[in-house]
Each structure stands twice: as structure tokens, then as C-alpha cells.
Fold each of these.
Amino acid sequence: MENIKIALLGLGTVGTGVYKVLKAQKAEMPDKIGAEIVIKKILVRNKEKAVAKVDDPSVLTTDWQEIIQDPEIQIVVEVMGGMEPARTYILEALEAGKNVATANKDLIAADGRELLDAAHAHQKDLLFEAAVAGGIPIIRPLKQCLAGNHLSEVIGIVNGTTNFILSKMTSEGMEFAEALAMATELGYAEADPTADIEGYDAGRKVAIMASIAFNSRVTFEDVYTEGITKISAKDIRYAKEMGYDIKLLGVAKNTPEGIEARVHPMMIPSTHALASVNDSFNAVFVHGDAVDDAMFYGRGAGELPTASAIVGDVFDIARNIRMNCCGRIGCTCYKDLPIKKMEDIKSRYFLRMQVEDRYGVLASITSVLGNNCVSIAQIIQKAKKQDLAEIVVITDSVRERHFRDSLKVMEGMSIIKKISSVIRVYGD
Ligand code: NAP
Ligand code: HSE
């Protein structure tokens, strides 16, 4: 019976989860993978802080050299996060002939190509199932199980914090700030929630999924991101009245004009499967020419769900080590497709604004939209207060460029006192 020695880099939320899951799996490992995974070293910054989390404190080290120079360690599990030193450590581990499992979406979304090329050069595995949607299997399905498809669409709710916030705003009528405070109190939102609420975290996940789904490299810089900070309880209420829910969606589409990669709030029909994905849950919806529609649902973050994905990767690598076939599946980006500019995407839009309540106002607004090729699907006057009226417009599917042009004109019109919200609407 083989002992496969591994090292963990980091013992925070995910690292501790990996430690616990490996312990819970210990008895079954020989039958499951024909080997026992032994944690030989854990890299931490502060040993004292980590001592209580492990059975044997002698595994703790603050010195990377103890890991990189140990030929017995065959797998490095990077769960420190951030760009550096994680990037350097992963490259050094691959160069030293070690396999790597990582949960680091920031790194994979920015430098995936370079890291996968290094893994290929050294014929080692670099797996990152945990980097997208935590416990939900999505990297392996896209890369392997769905390889017999031309995938055209990957759409998902891939950030648990923002989904929790929007769910609370929907079910309890909370405003954004109140729901964010609740998410922080319950431990969903990080101390600095910027990456979640501004859509950057979801953007990194979209870049990774799009690269794999469309076999063409998409980096985080290619992804348009817009967060949820401007969504109000009123927008959510009006959306509901019209049969929609508001979700922060990650959208990746392979179109004849190039790849669309974007993250933004979207009104989706309340009957759509993604509308029922609530609280901190994630879901990814995929369309392929052979499989048709497929949906993946579950916990997108957290100690044990994320560790579940990491340990799955570690077991896969262990099986490959035993069969002497590491590095079998590397980078699958063999195309070089263009990225579509955001101005060129087509969408329907929800527009809420405060206007002067007098004759000719509606006619002026519709004429600006019409002059910019924006066709109106619905226009509703919601409420009147003193001499102001609230108008809601839903457009047909139009080019973003045309919609932005009309917004620019409307922003300069004295009869329009405030453009309160602009939200994209799902569907053609
Ligand atoms: P975390 O709780 O902040 O843990 C990171 C750990 O790494 C901390 O214990 C930190 O030590 C340690 N660390 C950081 N830099 C180090 C260094 N240079 N040397 C040694 N140790 C170092 O973060 P996490 O939530 O576990 O996330 C880890 C990774 O998983 C990130 O890439 C994250 O994006 C990804 N991920 C997280 C989740 C989730 O639900 N949390 C889900 C999916 C993916 P200190 O405590 O001393 O700072
Ligand atoms: N912060 C992320 C979320 C989890 O809220 O979904 C880590 O990917």
C-alpha cells in the first residue's frame, strides 16, 4: 500500500476543511484510491495560531524550502490565496516535479495559461476544481464529461455572498446595506467584501469557465464586471411585480462575433431555474450541441464544500501517480477566439427614472430611444409625487452601444430629473 505524501500551503478556511475531509476519508482511501494520502507538511505564517487545528504540530512549518526541497512530497495543495507568493510556489512545485491542486481563482483567471503550460512542460497535474463554484463539480464536467460538445453558453450564479444579499433583499425587502451587514455578521461576506459585491470574484470564475467551455483563453481582464451595489429594494419589488427576480449572473457565450464574458445584475423570469437558486447557493447552467441543457447546483463556498472539491482533485492526482500518467489533461485552449466588446452585446434593458410630470415628456423619451434604434417593449408610469413621475421602460433586445447612446442623451435632458436604475433583462 502506497503512501502519497502531500503538503498544504495555508491553513485557513479551506485548508482546515481539507485537513478535516482527508481525516474523515482516511479509512476508505486504500479501497477508494489504492493509496493513503499523508499530510507531511503544512505551510503557515504563524505556527502558534495553527497548532490547535492539527493533531500533530510537527507538520507545521513556516519555511517553503522544507516543502519544495522534500522529494517525498508529490502533491502540493495551494489554499493560501492571492497572487504572490502562491504563483511562485506553484511554478516552483511544478518545476520540482510535484503535482498541484489549488482553489486560487484569482491566479488561474489571470495566469492560467502560464501555469498550465508549466504543468504540461513537466508532465504534472495542475487541478483547480475548487476555484469555481466551490463544492459544485464544474471544471471537470466542462473539461471532460462534456468534451463531446460544442458548448455555446455557460450562465451561472457563482457568488454566494451576493446571492445571499439579493435573496434577503427579495424575501425580506431589505436594502442593500442592511443585507450586506447581515451577510457579514453570518460570515458569508469577507471583511473587505469588494471582490464579491463588485462582481470581481464572479468575473474570475467566468473567465475560467469560458476558457474551458470554448477552448479559448479568456482572462479576468476580458470580463465586463458590474456589481450589485446600485440595486435597490424598489428595483427588486418592481421586478417581482413584472414576473422577474434580480440575480448577479455570470454570462459566457460563444457567438459568431466572438466570446461574450460578463458579470452583472440581471432580471430573470421567476420561472427560470436560476431564479430559484437562493441564499448562498450557486448554480451553473450549460448549453451544448449534444447534451442540450445541463445544470449544476450546490454550495459554492465554505470550509467543507470547497474542501470536497480539493480532495476530489487530490484523489484524482493520487490515482494518476499510481498509474504513472500525470499531466494527461492539461490546457484545452487550442483556439484563439476574439472577445466581443461589451458595446456589441445585445440585451433587453429595464430603465427606471424620475421625470417631470407634464405633457410631452413621454413623447420626448420615446423619441430619444427611437432615434438611437432602441425599441420599447413596455412603458409604465409607476407613481407620482408632487410634480415628478416615475417611469419604467423595458426595451426589446437592442445593442448595448445604442442603449448607452440613448442614456447619454437622456442624462442631459432637463425633463429627466434622475436615472435611478438600469438593469439588463434576460431573454431575446
Ligand atoms: P483564508 O481563510 O484567508 O486562509 C488562507 C490561509 O493561508 C491563512 O491561514 C493564511 O495565514 C495563509 N497564508 C496566506 N499567505 C501565506 C503565506 N505566504 N505563507 C503561509 N501561509 C499563508 O482563505 P480561504 O478562504 O481558506 O481561501 C483560500 C483560497 O481558496 C483562496 O484562493 C480562495 O479564493 C479560495 N476559495 C475559497 C473559498 C471559501 O469558501 N473560503 C471557496 C472557493 C475558493 P494567516 O491566517 O496567517 O493570514
Ligand atoms: N466569496 C465567494 C462567494 C466564495 O461568496 O461565493 C469564494 O469563491
Note: The mean pLDDT is 96.
Amino acid sequence: MGTLIKNGNVVSAAGSMVADVLVEGELIARVGAGIDAGGHTVVDAAGMLVIPGGIDVHTHLDMPFGGTTSADDYEWGTRAAAIGGTTTVIDFALQTMGRPMTEAFKTWRAKSEGKACIDYGLHMAVTDLGPNDSWLDGVDAMVAEGISSFKIFMAYPNVLMVDDRTIYKLMERTKQLGALVCVHAENGTVIDAIVQEALAAGHTGPLYHALTRPTVAEAEAVHRVVALSELAGGANVYIVHVSCEDAMREVAGARERGLPVMGETCTQYLVLSIEDDMGKPGFEDAKYVFTPPLREKKNQAPLWGAVKDDVLQVVSTDHCPFRFKDQKTLGLESFTKIPNGGPGVENRMQLVYDRGVNMGRMSVERFVEVTAEAPAKIFGMYPKKGVVAAGSDADIVVWDPEAEYTIEAATQAMHTDYSIFEGFKVKGNVRQVFSRGELVVEGGKFTGVVGRGQYLRRGLGEVLAG
Ligand code: URP
Ligand code: ZN
Ligand code: ZN
């Protein structure tokens, strides 16, 4: 006996059709019209969208950062993701400088083991190529372990930042293997100089986190990393958290030139801004200190346009939550001590649907593409994940396009004492979530067993060319 999701509007990037979806065990057995109910459990999805479970390829769970650790561990973060309609996350294992990548892999597998509520993969954040670049062999070892994407930071000097030579050498290797380099693109050393100037002038409040990280510093880094990719023979590149028009134009230019460059933006850059959210009294705006920072509102329309027009392929969250009361306040004396990051994994689908589809900024098909299908393709999980089709994992969201919801910290599953989207009203929300055939969310509650999520051994991804 399986589960038959009947009469929903089944959406993929290619189109939508009213159909039934038969789930047997962990997989989708059939998608089509008029499937016989037989002895199956029937879910009436008339009037609903039936969409692939969301895939958030940018989260930081249980991550040591800024003198503390992100507030959601693998259990809490993945439960919140599921409640918001996301059935897969890709998190980051961070290589410790002076230690090989294999060690970071073991550490992050141990953090996640037995805790995840949905399936998850890992990127490897590379910080050190080791003596005579000998740890580059770790790249091959990681690909064999199902890690096909490698993150580098061009920001955070002395913590995570790598130099151009490291990027180039890493790209030579990923190019050979067909793996992907994900890039936090900001000019870390120049930003550091600007930060020191601000501090010397007595500017210590949260607003100065944003004002000391100009959009040009992001655009310059995108430009440079694209050049490094060319120098390495055309390595596949994915720019994470593109936050502004200047940086987005660099991605657009690279894609127009036919280079294997892709990118994402995050929900916060689409709906929040310096004008609306920074400069609040009482240290309130420390809640919005993440990197890259919030930008001027004029950047939002170009970013929405880039998502619609496939300049950017993905919307993720960069979910990196810190509590206000005892974590963000570490930076009361200086914005440089505020842990960088914000909560968002629970609200991505709601916000992209409401502010995107409902406001006419993208079609429902594009919504599915940027939240599930393209991430699955780029990160080597398609068609196991990212599509409602026979043979795929039964990661399915029954989405009620009429459901109205107000985002509030008081009712969220994420473990922060605030929401950066507090009071946002959305129309369109999760009704049920299935993860590998199991009903894991109903009535806004997680109904699965903690630890049921599986580590995903990902293959090499596709380049979604311009
Ligand atoms: O502020 C952020 N984004 N924190 C997480 C680390 C990163 O840069 O993605
Ligand atoms: Zn980053
Ligand atoms: Zn991040």
C-alpha cells in the first residue's frame, strides 16, 4: 500500500499539470491522470500545488563562528527546514587551517549523525592546501565521499580567507575532476582596512558592518574569481549569496561570455534592506548583521530580475542563526565582534512564493526551479531530488497557495529569539511534507523521527549555462 496524492497541480520547471502522484516506499512510483486509489492512503490535493521538496544548498548548522556556535544544530535546523517545505539541505564542513580536509569531513559527519530530520549533503570549505599543496588530494577523496562542491572564502582574513594562488590551485584540481567551486566573493583585505578606518573614527555600531563592506568589494571579488576560473582552464564556479546589483552584473557578464559561472542570492537580500532594517535603535540591527550585509533597497529589483532571467539560478538562505540575547550581544562594544549570520531556512519557500510568484516576479515553474530543481542539478542530486517524477525520491510538498501566514519568532521552529522577517504576512504555505515517502510535516508540526535524515553522497553536478 502506498500514498496517492490526488488531483494536485504538479509543478516542475518545464510546466504544470493536474495529476495524481503515487508514492510507494521511499520513491515516486507514478505520476499521471486517474491513478486507481486501490488500497492506497489518499491525500486530496485538489486546489493544491504538488512540488518537489525544497533544496537549500547554503546552511551553517552547528558551526563555530565569531567566537560562538550557530544556534541551530542538525536536529533543530533540519526540523525547521522541513516545516518550511525544504527536504534537503547542503551544509558546510569547515577545514581547520593546518589540518587536512578528511578530518573536517569526519567532524561534520559526527555532528550530523543521528540528528538530521531530512536528507543532507556537505560542501567542503577549503582553507589550507597543506605542505607542498599535498592536501589537494583531499579534493579527490572528498569527491569519492560524495562531496562534489568546494567552498572558498575571499573574505574573513586570518579566519577563513584564502589567497588567489590557493583558489587557482584548487580550481585546477576541480577542473580536472569536474567538481564545483563555491565562492564567498568579497575583497576581505580591503574591507579589513575600511573597517579599521571606521573603528578609528569611533564608528562601532551594527550599521557600520554594512557601511564598511561596499558593493564594489563584492563585485571586484566576483570579477577576480571569474578571471581565476579562466586562468585555471574554465573551472566551474558558483557564487554564493550574491547580494547586490554590482556583483550580479559580474555574474551576468561571465555567463554572457559563455563561462561556467553560476550563482545564488538569498531570501534576505530580496526582501530586506539597509533603509528598512539597519540603523534601528537599541542594538536591534545586530539581528541583521550578516555577510555580505544588507544593501540599499534599489538592489532588490535587479536581484529579482536576475533570479527570473536565470542570471542567478538558485535562491538559498545562508541560514546561520545566532540568538540575540547572548550571541549577537557579543558585539555590543564593536560591530566586528557581532557573530555574522541570520536565521532563514524555515521561511525561504514562503517568501520566494509570496514575494516572487504572488507579486508577479516569477512563474510558479521558476519558483520550483530556483528552490529545488536547479539546486538538485547544480549540486549533483538530480533526478533523485528536485523533481516530482517516477523513480525520484518521494520528497514532495503539498503546497496550499491560499494559506495565509504571519512569520513570527514566537511560533518559529528555528532556535533564535527573533526573526529577521518578523511580522511579514505571506500567502502560500506548506500543507504537508513528505520526505522519502514519509509524512514528516502536517499542521505545521514535524511528525517524523529525529535522525531519520540520510547523508547524501552527491555526484558531479551540471553547469546550467547562460
Ligand atoms: O554572515 C554570514 N553569511 N555568515 C555565515 C558565513 C558566510 O559567510 O556564509
Ligand atoms: Zn559567506
Ligand atoms: Zn554562508
Note: The longest helix spans residues 215-231.
Amino acid sequence: MQKKRKETAAAILVLHGPNLNLLGTREPRIYGRETLAQINARLQAAGHRRKVDVRCFQSNTEGALIDRVQAARDEGVRFIVANPAAYTHTSVALRDALSAVAIPFIEVHLSNIHAREAFRRHSFFSDIALGTICGLGSQGYDLALGIALDRIGAR
Ligand code: DQA
């Protein structure tokens, strides 16, 4: 008798950079009142409805984010939604990690980085991202995840 192969759910990684653990209390006028836990729970529920495992990871450390991106390839993660936060404007290393694993990703920012200080206008990620969503608050994550789910063919 043929053994039934156990199907593993497709996975999407949601990556949050430094200080996003403080969402809810961090400059709510700019970043809103929702906590990261609330955002992640919503994304995971949306993934669950389409049988996709949404893995959320936040770190305040550049190396930990890089390690998580590298691990994503070994785990077979099919798509990444990334808010590199302040590393958006500084991190060649995190950009290189995303290039290296060659997993398609969407860059998300809660705030409109083009309507703030000049140093936020440059992103090390936008030119290698599938696309960028910014200025739409936490809804940007939902939109990015919806696109990611469509792209990987989740039903
Ligand atoms: C951010 C924008 C960045 O400039 C900032 O450093 C962040 C959050 C956003 O989501 O709006 O930490 O990525």
C-alpha cells in the first residue's frame, strides 16, 4: 500500500525590524495604536484561512534579521513581507540577505516615508522588492499579505 505523503503547508515570512515591537505606544500619531501582536494575529488568521503558515518575526538586531532571512530559504518559505524599519535606510547587509535567498518580497512601511525626514526617502530595498507599500498604516501588511497569498497560489 502506498504511504500517503504528509502535506506541509506553504509558508510566508513576515519580518519586522527594530522598534516595531513597541507598536501601540510608539509615536501613535505616526504608527497607529495597534500592537504588533494584534497585527501578527490578523495576518496569521488570514494565512490560516488560505492554508498558509504565516511566520512572524521581529528583532531589534540586524544580524538576527539576516539569520531569519537565511533560515527562510532552508524552511522553503515562498514569500516574504518585510518592514525593515530603520534598517530600510541603512542596511546593505539585510538587502544582501534578501538578494541572496532570492525569495520574492514586498516592502511595507506603516508611515509614508516620502512625506517625512529626507533621510527616510532612500530605501536599500525598494529596487529589489516586488513592490513597496507605504503610508497606509497596518493595512499595508494586509494588502502585502493578500498579494503574497495570490502570488504563491494559495486558495
Ligand atoms: C517605518 C519607517 C522607518 O523610517 C522607521 O525607521 C521605522 C518604521 C514604517 O513602518 O513606517 O521604524 O519602517
Note: The helical segments are 28-31, 36-49, 62-75, 92-101, 139-151.
